[in-house]
Task: structure prediction
Amino acid sequence: MTDDEDKSPPARARAEFAPAVLAVVALGGSLGAVARWGLVSLFPSAASAWAVLGVNVSGALLMGVLMAAVTEVPSLPRLTRPFLGVGVLGGYTTFSTYTADVLALDRFAALACLVLTPVTALAAVAVGVRGARAVLRR
Result:
């Protein structure tokens, strides 16, 4: 018995799929991070927390669209979700660091940004999913 024969079909698929997934996530993450940097750098430093809010909300909207697409369109290539979702949108959004950006804001604006980010992002995901499903089901 070879090593591959010892593995279950899902484990074999993961082992064969891992290098391709790593490559598309790395490429997508690079593209997403550059896009975020480019957009945020257009704003003065005092407005960067609000620019990051815009990036996060637009990324959440696009994530909703992507999730609807991968569930409604079975013919999409299997690397679409890791490339666009984990890679591009993972690199594009900054949910892991958005709290650091609010330190430059006064207390009211900081609190508003801290509350608005998750609330508007969740709403944007819902809008993205519903909008994409409506378009895709036509």
Remarks:
- The two ends are 50 Å apart (CA to CA).
- The CA atoms of residues 41 and 48 lie 8 Å apart.
- The mean pLDDT is 87.
